[in-house]
Amino acid sequence: MSLSSRVVHKRRETITALPLYFQGRMQKKRSKDKDFKPYYVELRGDSLFLYTDDTQESYTEKMDLSQLKTMQLESSYKKKEETVFILSLPKEEVQLKMENADTGEEWRGYILTMAKKELPNKLELMPGQRVKLEDALKQEKKRVSHHSRPALPPRPSFLQSESMTDSPKSTKPGMPECFYDVTRKEAEQMLEENPQNGGIILRPSTLPNNYALTLRQRTASGYVKKNYRVTSTNSGFVIELDTPVSVSSLNEVIEYFMEKTDYRVHPYTASQAYDTRIEVMPTPPHPSKAIPKAQVAPMLRSQSNGELDPHSEESPSGEYIYPDDHRPPKPRLDLGGR
User: Fold this and answer.
1) Residue 180: which residues within 8 A CB-CB, separation 6 or more?
2) How far apart are CA 43 and CA 53, in angstroms?
3) Quick one: DSSP state of residue 128?
4) Are 136 and 113 in contact (CB under 8 A)?
5) How far is it, in rounded angstroms, from Cα 322 to Cα 310?
6) pLDDT tens, 154-175?
7) Nearest alpha-carbon partner for 63 in 111, 118, 108
8) Are 137 and 129 in contact (CB under 8 A)?
9) Which residues are CB-contacts of 40 (< 8 A; sequence separation ≥ 6)?
């Protein structure tokens, strides 16, 4: 395997987040198509991923084999003729053409094994091919059992009476407000019982680190519920449609579905309860508090005409005032008539 092939293989593994069991070239035709179109196909998990060629990193189409009803052989089984199978799916029939009967029988074995999680009764495979198929089945059963979401316990009666409006919300920062940690059945029930709250719920997928989106939309024939898978990648998220759509965040996933429904479907937001009673509380008593005495500085009165500074040089009587220890000596009177 060349360096570029290893890079492509690693990239596909990251995008699909599923183990590779079988791969090869085949042609596909839908009931509405006139001719077969060639694809490079990988069987990862219980899904077929179709690429335009073996150098394309992101798949062009995806077929979920868990939805497979029947697989019938259309052409006669001859070694040197192309083999055509008709796969009956819930919404359509798809024809797959392999280059010869041996390749077709090997593909038939893998497709039916992964769809039903058991080996078909009759398989015309070589011993080595059968061993590889059995190993793939063991790996797939282990993957499904490991990632299957355990059944949730019954909800308390008070939650059932409230139509599940108190479903657990996510505490992860940056998650859309319409994310709820619920199963597919619970999400569909929430949308059906509370249409006024919105029509889009993002929820965890059975695959680790991936998500699913449940949508309830009104059509001409009434309301329909659909579920979509959102795969997490290193660069963002992939909305797994017939033509996959890559976005960078879960909020962009929600915005994409709103845009494609002409904004007629909005994210589900549980209604908030409002209070209906106003309680008047009694006025609390005011405890008596001692008023602290104000500390006021002595008032300085302004000097008027009748109050002079004792240190001023002139007294009211016009006499000099001296301190007691600086009084001049009394004059001696001369009584001798000099």
Assistant:
1) 167, 168, 169, 170, 186, 187, 190, 201, 202, 203, 268
2) 15
3) H
4) yes
5) 10
6) 444 433 444 444 445 544 567 8
7) 111
8) no
9) 23, 24, 25, 50, 51, 52, 53, 54, 56
This prediction's pTM: 0.49
For residues 16 and 240, the answer to whether their CB atoms sit within 8 Å is no
Over the stretch 268-308, which tens digit does the pLDDT of each residue have? 987 666 666 787 777 766 665 555 555 655 555 555 444 44
The whole-angstrom separation of Cα 225 and Cα 214 is: 7
In whole angstroms, how far apart are CA 181 and each of 159, 164, 187, 255, 298?
A: 15, 12, 9, 20, 75
The H-or-E segment that residue 29 falls in is: strand 20-30
Beta strands in 31-106 (DSSP E): 37-44, 47-51, 61-64, 70-73, 83-88, 93-98
Residue-level pLDDT at 312: 46
CA terminus-to-terminus distance, the chain: 151
Number of H helices, E strands in the chain: 6, 12
Q: Which two tokens stand for residue 63?
A: 């077929």
